[in-house]
């Protein structure tokens, strides 16, 4: 079930950024909803075989999403996203961090700024995500953690969810 949808994963070690451009076979409003509503994020925002569970979410400027990616054996990896700027269905800017189940940020692990932009491409939507790290060491750490494979698997799950929603 491969569609010829755009997927670019570019690493810029000069600027400590990842630029991920991904096309989805759905309209921009639906893709925006999948990125910004916890009940939809919980259905796709983790690489296989992990699942996602939201502890709390307030998608507003100054708000947050506190969630865990959960392994089949129950091991939880907590994250905290803090929303800085939101322009509905066009873009949002957020700070993303590893945390514990109380939402306390882990200073030992990389924190990044995510600038996520949504545009139309015919009947499809393009999501461009620019992830900026504080240092080259942080960028290399997430690459070594498997960011590209994990993100590829995660975005394929969104493809599957969009197919289900579009049929519904």
TrEMBL record:
Domain Activator of Hsp90 ATPase homologue 1/2-like C-terminal: from-to ranges: 26-162
InterPro entries hit by this protein: ASHA1/2-like_C (IPR013538), START-like_dom_sf (IPR023393)
Name of one Pfam family that matches: AHSA1
Homology family: Belongs to the AHA1 family.
Name of the protein described by the UniProt record: Activator of HSP90 ATPase
Species this protein is from: Yeosuana aromativorans
